[in-house]
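Deliverable D5.2: sample structural annotation.
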Amino acid sequence: MTPGIPARERALAFSRAAAAYAAHRPAYPPELFGTVEEAAGLRLRGARVADVGAGTGILTRQLHERGARVVGVEPGAGMAGQFRRELPGVPVLRGDGNALPFADASLDLLTYGQSWHWTDPARAVPSALRVLRPGGALVLCWNDPDPDVPWVAEQGARIEERFGPGYFISDCTPPPALAWTTRVLRWSRRVTVDFHLAKLATHSAFILLDEAGGAEFLAAERAHLAGRFPGGELDEPYVTTVAVAVAVRTPAGGGS
């Protein structure tokens, strides 16, 4: 995260780079969806799903392609606008996970792809339990660079030196109030060095950095990567963490 800048400002900053975000951020590995179905005890096809913090619709698209009746929820105007361009047939609502715009017990599944860490869990957990039907499920997932790969760890150290600790890897700790099934999936995609740097530039710290400072950091990073990958391509490795909790609501709508 970017030190000294409020979380809401950081979250809404993505709207400034919505088109680049849609073009360069990774989708989720296919194995994630089987994991969700198994842990939640439901099929995605026909399920009533809200994808919260949907951004430009990366996870929403994958849920839609698997037959889910999915709606996006996104607080940022720029991201919601890009969502509509990417997925014109899928509805998107303006809102966030702290106060979900749905009726009680109306959803089978709530997903948060790369977005739970922008919520206030003290508000987001009760909100999720309110809108999920009994037996519905809350799904949190994150795509992070794989720090076990040496060049990724070296890049992460440079990023944290520039922006501070906690920026490079997401906090993937689910809230303790619920019982979670957690899986870790490793995968990679082949991209050019320039594509990788363009993806890096869609992270909030780079968006909020002044243009000269961002360009300077990315130019230095290009030099590091050119020495390691003279052919101009690399395998961009990811660790995808997915956590699934089945909701059991009390009559008063409390926790489970």
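Annotation notes: Strands lie at 48-52, 69-73, 92-93, 107-113, 132-145, 181-192, 233-246. The chain has a mean pLDDT of 91.
The annotation will be released with the project's public dataset once the embargo ends.
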